[in-house]
């Protein structure tokens, strides 16, 4: 077995992606494109490990921004291969909570309006690729890795629109996305991306220490030299005592979140139970009211029928077992 840092945690993931070679390997594999140059554009990371965490505040999204040069080999109209380069912005975001997904959209909206995120012409927005590493599952989507290409166009009836030439305007309208559902990664990888990503598979974490992943040797080295770079980087981090301290504190934060979320779910369940009981009481009250109205209507009919045959109010009261005042009310 090969033991290494568990990259699901922000501290270890940050350590992993700080290695430019490893970052190129991971991003190239996830995007299925060749990242030849990579530069960290900016970084946002709210570090609760080195500061006091405000009570009730959500654990942060971990986000890395890259400016990448991608080199693709494509065929022209005559079938000849040519090399094309494109500079894109890559937003790599990792999140535990499903509720935090809304922050992705808010952040990407800010990226589109950032005047620095434009091509050399100073006008055309750069192509943005958003990569989401999710620590939870998306309902009804069973694929562990999914791709969305925003510049694929369809007409009103859903038919694809084939463009005769490249359009910078169309390309910049929306962003491409890569979604990785870590809990859905297969135990037996079926492609290059799954082979690299099985270091994130939480089935391999140690029961005694969730900060450590223990992979069988064949799984650890399955993926060639690229996989070896990732595994060796995570093994290196395992020997860093400061890293282990940070991970220990991060675990405590996540435990607090789990406890908080458990309480929230309990409160929600109790509220739902109370709501159901209130609805039941309301239904029973409405049923009783309807039955009372039905009984009152029947008494009115009886009282009027008895009056029509000449009975006095006193006799009617005795006949239907109510007071005389009630009979007078029924007859009005």
Q: Key features?
A:
alpha/beta, 332 residues, two-stranded antiparallel ribbon, six-stranded mixed beta sheet
Would you spell out the secondary-structure blueprint of this structure?
Blueprint: E1 2-5, H1 10-17, H2 20-31, E2 35-44, E3 62-75, E4 81-95, H3 101-113, E5 127-134, E6 145-148, H4 168-171, E7 176-181, H5 192-197, E8 212-215, H6 217-221, H7 224-238, H8 241-308, H9 313-320, H10 324-331
Parallel strand pairs: 4-5, 5-7
Antiparallel strand pairs: 1-8, 2-3, 3-4, 6-7
Strand content: 15-25%
Average pLDDT: 77
The N- and C-terminal alpha carbons lie at a distance of: 92 Å
Shape: elongated
- Could you list the spans in which at least 5 consecutive residues all have pLDDT below 50? 46-59, 99-107
Count of DSSP H/I helices: 10
Structural class: alpha/beta
Oligomer: single chain
Radius of gyration: 33 Å
Could you give the order of the helices and strands?
A: EHHEEEHEEHEHEHHHHH
Q: Describe the main β-sheet briefly.
A: 6 strands, mixed
Which percent range fits the helix content? 40-55%
DSSP summary, beta strand count: 8
Strand arrangement, major sheet:
2-3-4-5-7-6
Q: Would you kindly provide a written description of the structure presented here, covering whatever features stand out?
A:
There is one protein chain. This protein has helices at 10-17, 20-31, 101-113, 168-171, 192-197, 217-221, 224-238, 241-308, 313-320, 324-331, and strands spanning 2-5, 35-44, 62-75, 81-95, 127-134, 145-148, 176-181, 212-215. The chain has 332 residues and is of the alpha/beta class. The chain has a six-stranded mixed sheet, sandwiched between helices. Strands 1-8 form a two-stranded antiparallel ribbon.
């Amino acid at each position: 077995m090969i033991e290494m840092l568990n990259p699901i945690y922000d501290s270890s993931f940050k350590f992993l992606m700080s290695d430019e070679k490893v970052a190129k390997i991971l991003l190239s594999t996830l995007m299925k494109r060749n990242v030849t140059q990579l530069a960290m554009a900016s970084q946002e990371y709210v570090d609760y490990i080195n500061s006091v965490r405000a009570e009730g505040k959500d654990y942060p999204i971990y986000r890395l921004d890259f400016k990448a040069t991608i080199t693709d080999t494509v065929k022209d109209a005559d079938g000849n291969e040519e090399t094309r380069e494109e500079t894109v912005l890559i937003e790599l975001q990792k999140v535990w909570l499903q509720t935090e997904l809304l922050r992705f959209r808010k952040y990407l909206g800010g990226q589109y309006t950032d005047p620095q995120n434009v091509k050399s012409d100073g006008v055309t927005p750069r192509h943005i690729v958003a990569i989401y590493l999710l620590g939870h599952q998306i309902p009804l989507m069973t694929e562990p890795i999914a791709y969305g290409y925003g510049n694929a166009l369809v007409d009103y009836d859903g038919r694809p629109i084939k463009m005769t030439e490249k359009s910078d305007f169309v390309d910049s309208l929306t962003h491409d996305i890569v979604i990785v559902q870590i809990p859905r990664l297969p135990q037996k990888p079926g492609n290059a991306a799954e082979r690299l990503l099985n270091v994130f598979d939480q089935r391999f974490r140690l029961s005694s220490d969730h900060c450590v992943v223990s992979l069988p040797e064949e799984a650890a080295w399955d993926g060639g030299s690229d996989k070896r770079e990732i595994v060796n980087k995570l093994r290196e981090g395992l020997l860093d005592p400061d890293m282990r301290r940070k991970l220990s504190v991060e675990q405590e934060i996540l435990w607090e979140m789990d406890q908080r979320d458990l309480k929230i779910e309990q409160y929600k369940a109790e509220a739902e139970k109370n709501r159901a009981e209130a609805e039941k009481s309301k239904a029973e009250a409405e049923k009783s009211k309807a039955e009372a109205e039905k009984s009152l209507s029947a008494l009115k009919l009886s009282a009027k029928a008895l009056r029509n045959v000449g009975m006095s109010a006193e006799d009617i009261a005795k006949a239907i077992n109510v007071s005389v005042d009630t009979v007078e009310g029924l007859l009005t």
